[in-house]
Amino acid sequence: LYDQDAPRDEGVFVPFFGRLASTRDGPVRIALRTRAPVLPIFLHRVGSSGMHVAQFRPPVPMQRPEGDVESAIRENTRRLTAAIEAARVARSVVGHELPSALLRAGDRVRG
Chain centroid to CA 31: how far? Predict the structure, then answer.
């Protein structure tokens, strides 16, 4: 789960709702090695039915490394985290229930 807090040795710090958060960089490393697209996918509970709906977003454009691989990893991790922020803001603006995993977003912010 990409929106969960990462141990310091398994990720990088990128902004998340205005604060630095330890964020897993594994998906970015795999995408850069394989040139695979990264599609943000969000699961939303349907009322109290126990069912969920998957929402697929467009691929996040990846910056290809130009010498400094770690900078590209940090930038792409920031981009993926921004996609999570955008999804949370969009859901709250239209008045839908926020996914419970995103409601715990504050748990991953180091302060």
Answer: 14
Measuring CA to CA, how many Å separate 29 from each of 22, 33, 44, 60? 16, 6, 27, 14
Question: Which of 57, 47, 41 lies closest to 1, judged by CA?
Answer: 41
pTM of the predicted structure, to 2 decimals: 0.74
pLDDT band at 8 (very low <50, low <70, confident <90, very high): low
- Among 44-48, 69-73, 106-110, the range scoring the smallest mean pLDDT is 106-110
How high is the pLDDT of residue 49?
86
Could you tell me the two tokens for 74? 């940090």
